[in-house]
């Protein structure tokens, strides 16, 4: 038998010839290819290319279609004349259909249009080398086939004997039967005195049949080094050795063309007859045939197992699977299909593959199915049936709807937060100037009353922007470890007076609630908003229930919002017995300015503020409601891993209002009107002010003025650096510098504070003059200690 020819291309270096008259491009491309492991020879012209090809031994050539005054297509033709095995890839920025055809006719394998991506180039080169490998393997296979044919011609004289023996082997129905038939054939035709057949099972050769002397029932697989079978496996043909009495011992491995061992034959020649070379060749032929029979038998067994696995797969598939004939009559269906579609196959026309969404009422509620129909073809590509696969996509559809709703709310939140931020700056100017005017008209009661009304209206505007910022998650929070049970118990006393006697309040607070980290004031405001909404939903009185419990959310829980992180939460719910909501109202309930109340009875910001506060706190909000059955709003807050201390803000509301002592303050504010207002306030408090509009100019002012005692900066600044980054840079330049931060919309930036900035006071715009005075005085005094 002919030995397999090794793959000559298996370790062949990937050698390239790159031909381009643009030296910079050629050198850059060559460097890139070398980094990818290619051996690259570069030629910058027509004549140089032929020389470099021979020296480099390139397998693939990258050739520019224009090489100065010469033609790259002609170069490809010349390279093919010199080396017909060379694969050429044209590179051009001016390719046309005619040029492409001419290049391919000249022998080009492919072409690339400049400019091209590195991935496109590497994929093309991979195809070239793969094509070359396949071409060489084909040549090797043809060579092997020719060698096999020569051997078969030499054995033609013995075909009659082989075919007669092969008939018995062909009738075998299993691998074991084929091996046993081969053993009996060899004992008879070769005149063996005894023999044994071993079948490979798992990692051992197990004795299946013995004729004459007993053999070991089990042999290791592969056999031990130095044994007769090990020698036969190495040679991949029968091996023989002589016994002391002069008889021949035969070792015959049953190995297929891929080198897999299926079994083995061991035997001894009789004293009257030794084994000849022709005997061994006959044994090899019969063994090869037996191996094919064994492979076929194993393939049939594998097919049976595969069909059984397929049946089990279809049976246990999470999708419903069915096969119908062209009239729509069901030929095959798994149990899930029968359960989902008891009325039969949904639709019978499937000339082409189609997809359809079907909604239907099923036990447990309304379900949504994605149904795929496709034609089932025979070997002649004729449609012989219709395949149907149905998948329950109800949960997926619900998750997509939740995602779309979250995206809508995110967009609305960004717009709302931006508007609130700008409005806050306007209110800061109005509020600050009104406070300055208020100081000037203390002796004019008539004007003082007008200013007071304007201040009250401005404070209402500030509260409105606070709700907008809460929805947009842009409101700066002051979170601290909080006992939900204690807060709810204390707050319920206020609610009893707020809601009136017509509404009964019930508390259901689980013992040993986990501690959460939230802004207590914002949580109280959220509870108040939810309670007022509940009161308005129960005009004739009713029942309000506030409950809190520990929950652990699982990522795989059905119906759970995929955006919610799994973990430990405290669930705080407010439930009423009011009129409830329709599904349409429930989907829009958290949108800002949406309300079902009469005109003037509500701003439509209460529930949206609660939603924004919970999301900003790392939690999650769920609403459950049906018309006539009340509403339940549940707030999920992440639990702290362990008890922690109360967060200190660094502010104290003591009186009287502290003033400055001539210290210099660096004020950084990008809005000119707000900057002018704060400068006036600081001047009245007794401070000297240095102004800056952004971080860069602020650092320049800090370098010029050595007596700056404190930095008062807005967090949101133009120019690339925000107030947090400015404060860090200022502290690095002036350790101990007092820091006070202001913001109207910078909650995301606050989360990154660390070190001294972690406890720096943060004042929300518009800033009360008294609060500004206390914070600034405390920051300066703290920096001097």
From TrEMBL:
Checking SMART domains in the record gives: HATPase_c (SM00387), HisKA (SM00388), REC (SM00448)
- Annotated Response regulatory domain ranges read 15-129, 664-780
Residues modified as 4-aspartylphosphate are: 64, 714
Report the catalytic activity. Answer: ATP + protein L-histidine = ADP + protein N-phospho-L-histidine
Top-level division of the source organism's lineage: Bacteria
Pfam families per the UniProt record, alphabetical: HATPase_c (PF02518), Response_reg (PF00072)
Q: Which top EC class is named for this enzyme in its record? A: transferase
Q: Which residues cross the membrane?
A: none
Q: Which PANTHER family match?
A: HISTIDINE KINASE (PTHR43065:SF49), SENSOR HISTIDINE KINASE (PTHR43065)
Q: What is this protein called?
A: histidine kinase
Tell me which species this is from: Benzoatithermus flavus
């Amino acid at each position: 038998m002919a030995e397999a020819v090794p793959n000559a291309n298996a370790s062949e270096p990937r050698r390239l010839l790159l031909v381009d008259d643009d030296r910079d491009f050629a050198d850059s491309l060559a460097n890139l290819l070398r980094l990818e492991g290619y051996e690259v020879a570069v030629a910058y012209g027509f004549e140089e290319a032929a020389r470099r090809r021979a020296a480099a031994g390139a397998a693939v050539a990258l050739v520019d279609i224009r090489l100065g005054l010469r033609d790259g297509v002609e170069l490809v033709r010349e390279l093919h004349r010199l080396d017909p095995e060379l694969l050429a890839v044209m590179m051009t920025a001016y390719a046309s259909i005619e040029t492409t055809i001419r290049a391919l006719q000249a022998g080009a394998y492919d072409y690339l249009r400049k400019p091209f991506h590195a991935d496109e180039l590497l994929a093309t080169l991979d195809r070239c080398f793969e094509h070359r490998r396949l071409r060489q393997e084909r040549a090797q296979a043809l060579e092997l086939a020719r060698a096999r044919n020569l051997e078969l011609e030499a054995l033609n004289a013995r075909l009659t004997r082989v075919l007669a023996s092969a008939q018995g082997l062909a009738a075998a129905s299993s691998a074991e039967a084929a091996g046993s038939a081969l053993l009996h054939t060899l004992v008879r035709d070769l005149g063996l005195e005894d023999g044994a057949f071993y079948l490979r099972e798992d990692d051992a050769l197990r004795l299946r049949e013995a004729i004459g002397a007993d053999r070991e029932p089990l042999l290791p697989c592969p056999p031990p080094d130095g044994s007769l079978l090990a020698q036969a496996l190495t040679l991949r043909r029968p091996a023989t050795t002589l016994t002391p009495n002069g008889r021949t011992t035969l070792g015959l491995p049953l190995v297929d063309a891929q080198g897999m061992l299926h079994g083995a034959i061991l035997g001894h020649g009789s004293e009257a007859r030794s084994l000849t070379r022709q005997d061994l060749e006959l044994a090899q032929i019969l063994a090869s045939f037996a191996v094919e029979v064994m492979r076929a038998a194993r393939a049939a067994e594998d097919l049976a197992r595969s069909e059984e696995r397929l049946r089990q797969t279809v049976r246990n598939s999470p999708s419903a699977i069915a096969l119908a004939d062209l009239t729509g009559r069901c030929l095959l269906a798994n149990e899930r299909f029968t359960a989902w579609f008891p009325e039969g196959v949904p639709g019978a026309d499937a000339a082409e593959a189609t997809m359809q969404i079907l909604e239907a009422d099923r036990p447990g509620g309304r379900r949504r199915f994605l149904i795929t129909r496709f034609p089932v073809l025979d070997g002649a590509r004729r449609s012989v049936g219709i395949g149907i696969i149905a998948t329950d996509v109800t949960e997926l559809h619900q998750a997509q709807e939740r995602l779309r709703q979250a995206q809508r709310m995110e967009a609305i939140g960004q717009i709302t937060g931006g508007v609130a931020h700008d409005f806050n700056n306007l209110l800061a100017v109005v509020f600050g100037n009104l406070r300055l005017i208020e100081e000037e008209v203390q002796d004019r009661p008539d004007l003082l009353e007008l200013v007071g009304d304007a201040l009250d209206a401005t404070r209402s505007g500030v509260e409105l922007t606070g709700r907008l910022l809460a929805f947009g998650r842009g409101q700066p929070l002051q979170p601290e470890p909080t006992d939900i049970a204690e807060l709810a118990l204390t707050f319920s006393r206020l609610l009893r007076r707020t809601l009136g006697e017509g509404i009964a309040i019930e508390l259901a607070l689980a013992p040993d609630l986990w501690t959460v980290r939230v802004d207590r004031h914002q949580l109280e405001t959220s509870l108040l908003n939810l309670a007022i909404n509940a009161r308005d939903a129960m005009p004739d009185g009713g029942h309000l229930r506030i409950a809190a419990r520990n929950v652990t959310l699982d990522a795989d829980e059905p119906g759970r919002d995929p955006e919610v992180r799994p973990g430990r939460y405290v669930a705080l719910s407010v439930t009423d017995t009011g009129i409830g909501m329709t599904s349409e109202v429930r989907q829009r309930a958290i949108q800002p300015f949406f309300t079902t109340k009469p005109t003037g009875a509500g701003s439509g910001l209460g529930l949206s503020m609660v939603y924004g506060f919970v999301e900003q706190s790392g939690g999650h909000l769920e609403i459950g409601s049906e018309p006539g059955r009340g509403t339940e709003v549940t707030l999920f807050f992440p639990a702290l891993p362990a008890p922690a201390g109360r967060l200190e803000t660094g502010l104290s509301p003591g009186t009287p209002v502290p003033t400055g002592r001539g210290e210099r303050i660096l004020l950084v504010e990008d809005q000119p009107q707000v900057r002018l207002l704060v400068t006036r306030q600081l001047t009245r408090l007794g401070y000297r002010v240095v102004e800056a509009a952004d971080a860069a100019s602020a650092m320049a002012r800090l370098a010029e003025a050595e007596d700056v005692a404190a930095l008062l900066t807005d967090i949101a600044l133009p120019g690339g650096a925000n107030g947090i980054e400015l404060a860090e840079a200022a502290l690095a330049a002036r350790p101990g510098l007092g820091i006070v931060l202001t913001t109207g919309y910078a909650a995301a930036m606050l989360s990154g504070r660390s070190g001294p900035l972690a406890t720096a006071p943060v004042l929300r715009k518009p800033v009360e003059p008294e609060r500004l005075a206390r914070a600034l005085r405390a920051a300066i005094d703290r920096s001097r200690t």
